[in-house]
Prior knowledge:
Blueprint: E1 2-5, H1 15-19, E2 24-26, E3 32-34, H2 45-54, E4 60-63, H3 91-94
Antiparallel strand pairs: 1-4, 2-3
Amino acid sequence: xxxxxxxxxxxxxxxxxxxxxxxFSLDDWGYASLIGDGxxxxxxxxxxxxxxxxxxxHAIAEIGERISAxxxxxxxxxxxxxxxxKTQENEAEWGFTR
Length: 98
């Protein structure tokens, strides 16, 4: 796991340093800095995730490989793509109202 810290977003709450002091330090005004290159050891993953999830301004982000969505199968020639659209005529079927 790798993380990054956006210091321009940080408001200095210090929650990250509370949960993961080995990865975040606070300056004299309480703003966070990332310690190291952002690589998180597996044993520290829970603490860093807690810091990431509890950051009130979402200044911490996980960097990872993008997982591509499942490949889309091509539509069969006989299938009408507009057949499943939600419209006023079938709104009761889809469970929405105007």
